[in-house]
Amino acid sequence: MPGEPSTRRGRASRERIVERAADLFAERGIAGTSVDDVLEAAKAGKGQFYHYFRNRDELVPALLDRAHREAIGGVLDRETAELVRNLRGRPDVARLLTEPDLSPGSAPIVDLHFDMAGTSLRFFSVVSTIVAPIDVTAQELRVEAFFPADDETRDRWTSLEVMRQ
Known about the structure:
The protein has helices at residues 8-28, 35-42, 46-52, 59-72, 78-89, 91-98, 151-164, and strands spanning 109-116, 119-131, 140-148. It contains seven helices and three strands, in the order ααααααβββα. By secondary structure, it is α+β, with helices and mostly antiparallel strands. A hairpin with a 2-residue loop joins strand 1 and strand 2. The longest helix is centred in the first third of the chain and has 21 residues, at 8-28. Helix 1 (8-28) crosses helix 2, helix 1 crosses helix 4 and helix 4 (59-72) crosses helix 5. The protein folds into two domains: 8-98, Tetracycline Repressor, domain 2, CATH 1.10.357.10; 109-164, no CATH class.
């Protein structure tokens, strides 16, 4: 499933793909730019592309995110700002930004199955990351929460909690 790169080299590859896509989108529009066009311009392979993006349309939010980060950092140049304005004004981009993304996300959800005294308990775990770069002492906080995956597990878990009290 596509996601953010974890290495410096991966981040550089993903950024190069986004940069070349931005150039081509500005020149040809989204509809006039294929994944193969982007890959040729970025000198990247399909494996690299699909490791970071599900399809061509996912490049638009990535490009806008990059421009947003640059703006926050105070380094949004005039050329990038103009590109963002042009992209936001295009009907094909407006459609991408207003249509809900119904594709399965890449949220870290893990199914857990336990056998406890002959009873099967099924949970799912969700990990949330809270980033606070303002405070160096708490740059990132991860919270993992467990939820019953079915009614039987919820009822059994609730009864165990009542017995414990």
